[in-house]
Amino acid sequence: MSIFDKVRELFYGRPKKLASNSTRAERGQYGEDLAADYCKRTLGFQVIARNWRHKRDELDIVCVDAGVLVFVEVRARAASALVGGYHSIDTHKKRVLQRGSKAYINQLQNPPKHVRFDVIDVSLSDEGEGDVRHYGNVPLFSKHYTTRHESRY
After folding, report:
1. Apex CA 133: angle with CA 132 and CA 135, to 5°?
2. Is the whole model's pTM more than 0.70, yes or no?
3. Which residue of 5, 10, 23, 74 sits 20 to 30 Å from the alpha carbon of 149, by its own alpha carbon?
4. CA distance 19 to 23
5. Cβ distance 106 to 150 under 8 Å?
6. Cα separation of 21 and 143, whole Å?
7. For the chain, how far is it from start to end, CA to CA, in angstroms?
């Protein structure tokens, strides 16, 4: 535990632990709670939406970081998992993120100029604690990908 973690624990208290018999949904919610807290307290992001839905697509966390709209995908995995959360984002999930981010931006009155995708990988130990790893500005899409407003006819 770093000195920063000890100071944060002193001011904000120790985060609750996850029960050993928790369901998959509870583990996912715990991971998203840890990730949202990490975005606010550690990264200094302003969280503006959580679990934003459009039709069948969902964005885990939507934040603003110094004027940049940030879509955060949270991947909670067991610490013993063979594939980490960062590497578990497959082609299907990329399509979902792409559709969801475009839908989110299209509903804004003043869409931002800059958008980025971050991944937060939460590794869940058998003791019920989560280890958070942040991957910023992840190139999930080709360099020609754009989320600009599409013209409507």
Report:
1. 145
2. yes
3. 74
4. 9
5. yes
6. 43
7. 56
* Cβ partners under 8 Å of residue 36, min gap 6: 47, 50, 61
Residue 20's Cβ-count burial label (10 Å; 0-12, 13-18, 19+) is exposed
Give tens-digit pLDDT for 65-121.
999 999 999 999 988 888 888 889 998 998 899 999 999 999 999 888 889 999 999
Range 3-135 classified under CATH 3.40.50.2300? no
Helix (H, G, I), strand (E, B) or coil at 71: strand
Residue of 31 and 3 predicted with greater confidence: 31
Which of these, 100, 23, 19, lies nearest to 57 by C-alpha position? 100
Q: According to the model, what pLDDT value does residue 150 have?
A: 47
**Residue 48 carries which DSSP code?**
E
Per the listing, tokens 């992840």 go with: 138
Q: What is the pLDDT of residues 29-54, one digit of tens each?
A: 999 999 999 999 999 999 999 999 99
Domain boundaries, the chain: 3-135
Determine whether 16 is exposed, middle or buried from the number of CB atoms within 10 Å of its CB (0-12, 13-18, 19+): exposed
